[in-house]
Amino acid sequence: MPTTIPSAPDSVTIPISGMTCVACSSRIQRTLERQAGVERAVVNLMLGNATVIYDPRATSAVHLVDAIRSTGYGAELAPGAHSAIVEQDALDRAQAHEYHRLRRGAAFSAVAAVGAMILSMPLSAMDAAGLPATAVDPFMQWTMTRLTPRLSAAAPWLYVLPRSVLVTLLFALTVVVLGWTGRHFYTRAWMAFRHHAADMNTLIALGTGAAFAYSVVATVAPAFFTDHGVSPDVYYEAVIFIIALILIGNTLEARAKRRTSAALRALAGLQPPSARVMRGDAEVDVPVEDVQLGDIIAVRPGERLPVDGEIVDGASAVDESMLTGESLPVEKHPGDRVIGATINRTGAFRYRATAVGAQTVLARIVRMVRDAQGSRAPIQGLADRISAVFVPVVLQLAIVTFVVWFVSAQATGSAAATAFVRAFAASVAVLVIACPCAMGLAVPTAVMVASGRAAREGILVKGGEALQRAGEITTVVLDKTGTITEGKPSVTGVVLVPNSTSTEREVLGLAASVEQSSEHPLAESVVRHARDRSIAIARAQSFRATPGLGADGTVHGTRVVVGSAALMRARGVDVAPLESHARDLADGGRSVMYVALDERLAALIAVADPIKRDAHVAVPLLRRMGLEVVMLTGDTERTANAVARELGIERVIAGVLPDGKMAEIARLQQAGAVVAMVGDGVNDAPALARADVGMALGTGTDIAAEAADVTLMRGDLHGVVTAIALSRRTMTTMRQNLGWAFIYNVIGIPIAAGVLYPAFGILLSPVLASAAMAFSSVSVVTNSVRLGRVRLG
Predict the structure, then answer these.
(1) Per residue in 715-737, pLDDT tens?
(2) HEC per residue, 189-203
(3) Closest residue by Cα to residue 422 from 610, 231, 656
């Protein structure tokens, strides 16, 4: 029998529009997972897409798009295969369009809300005139006695307009807001209802819809209310205010989403647009997309390498900091591997292309960042979890309230019309007090205040999700170079040979005179150190650099050699007198350069990347907060251990490249840790994206900052301590806000339903329900404002 070979699963990334909350992404993910042939589906709210792994024999990408559209959200397949830059530009354009649409809607709704509030005040006074005192609720009485006199003095013309004109203006303004800026709330709530689900859109649609429907009845037939002793109040301004506040929150979320993809575009932009390829004996500039495997590419000093390859001719020092994060360029010779997007620092060379397009190291890093961001599950919002249960319960309570009031009123002999008005007013009061305004403000206000506080502390946070995750951190992973250390080699000491006839200043002056002609970073550190100490530097004669070993030259008639032990031996210089010192310094993480004068060993110079002063304070503070501190670096194990010993860091992972850093983060997460990654280089970008919270130092690369959730603008580790402490306080405030908003509803809904009426005669009218809602919102905002002045320590 022939053997059936199973087909390999395909994967597709589908852009999605219209998602506003975690409930949206969860509903789409459940729908995709139910499709035949789907092995795994991950919907990313922040990136606005779904990544699906499926069996192409059982389903297709087109069918998956149709499944997403059936839930009420927009979806389409990305057109063709493009470079990372093109794909990210398309995503940026879509996110920018959504952000500007929301911003226009929020601005219009906010202006409309202010106008509606002004128009509603004289209307309330008119509605209350002539009614018995018992028909005018306390909220309206307060409005008439406190605010109305001030408005009538400032704008007396409002109070001469007929009631019909005021109501018509309010009605028209509300219709415009609901039909334009708030329309998507209703369409998405309807889609959720069709799929037997509830989300924040459902809460918004129910609250504003009930208030609007009640207001329309009061507008069309006000006598129906007054004839039965009920004030024909309208709540158009409440509808507009709710829409405006929610849109402002959505606008802030959309702005955060726009920043999440900038890291990918910046990474892809590191690749130069063209390459200098050898065509016969001539150098020809060609687009980097046209470079083929085996092409010989010429590179000059200061240029970025277009693709990966192997050197065939020439030598140089290549800055691989975008890959390893280390500040020292790496010496390269024929046969050595070079990586695309790294920078050629000194010499010129030619190399053979061994990886192009999607197979280059840079392309793989871009994919790793994208996969890490896409695999991060969106945090489950507390408000959405509450609303999933809360909304159906409120709807049922409103129906029960109407039925009970209608039946009870008729049982006591009231007319059917009177019973209907009372029942309708009570049920509307239940829906109005259950309005999601406080729930909608609970998290965004805390995020806004905490973000402002963080900015004052030099910390930039990408939205509320990062704030929430940071409060749950258990492990902090620190990159070494540029994060714990300064990222710039410096001379840490000079050791003279026993019985030396030269002084330290003389040795430094001669060494710097030779090294000033070199472009190696270690040479630059020697020259900088000599100048900082005001040591005279002369011009060396007969300068000669030996790539990877050192340099020599003649200074004032003295032959000076500066470099490694191998160079000294090649020049016939005995290094034995200082070998033990060199080993001790190397064990301490120092790089060592020997100095010989006229073929006799004179001294050795120790160079190291010094530890930042703030690291000595921040690392113990992190441990005091109950956090595990881990060092993760691409540097050698010996150097990393030396730094770790000085700071008291017990766990060190050294010698790892970007994919290794990302794997180590994933390993920690699999062990149950909630991981924060702190870094500053391009090589840290995949790990920053993979971590639960990525923190980038503002002194590092823009790419690292864009891949991270938190950017520490002051470039010190104190910001890590502050960010985590602020996050913990913010999470506490968010939970308090949501709890208080829920408690207000738990207390207010029964009162609005009339449970206190039989015993105490207390009934919560829709106006008082709106006041209770406003009070809960004020309480939430006030509680959030406290974050701006809370002590962090």
Answers:
(1) 788 889 999 999 899 888 888 88
(2) HHHHHHCCCCCHHHH
(3) 231
Q: Which residues contact 500 (CB under 8 A, 6 or more apart)?
A: 602, 603
Lookup: tokens for 29: 């993910």
Q: What is the pLDDT of residues 413-432, one digit of tens each?
A: 766 666 776 787 788 778 76
Q: Residue 237 contacts by C-beta under 8 Å, 6 or more apart in sequence?
A: 113, 116, 117, 119, 120, 170
Residue with tokens 């994967």: 11
Q: Residue 23 has which token pair?
A: 């409930």
- Provide the percentage of residues in the chain whose pLDDT is more than 90: 21
Question: Closest Cα to residue 137, out of 261, 241, 41, 235?
Answer: 235
And the tokens for 64? 């998956």
Q: Say what the pLDDT of residue 260 is.
A: 45
Residues 776/739, Cβ–Cβ less than 8 Å:
no
The 10 Å Cβ neighbour count of residue 32 is: 23
Q: Tell me: the pLDDT tens digits for 539-588?
A: 899 888 887 788 999 999 999 999 888 889 988 999 889 989 888 888 77
DSSP 611: B
| Backbone phi and psi for residue 213, each to the nearest 5 degrees, phi listed first | -60, -45
Catalytic (active-site) positions: 479
| Helix 463-470 and helix 437-456, axial crossing angle in degrees, nearest 10 | 80
Residue with tokens 């859109």: 201
End-to-end Cα spacing for the chain: 73
Amino acid, res. 583: R
Amino acid identity for residue 139 in this structure: F
Q: For the residues 683-708, what does the mean pLDDT come to?
A: 73
Give bridge partners of residue 10 from the DSSP assignment.
54
Backbone angles phi, psi at 48, to 5 degrees: 65, 45
3-state SS assignment for residue 92: helix
Q: Global pTM?
A: 0.57
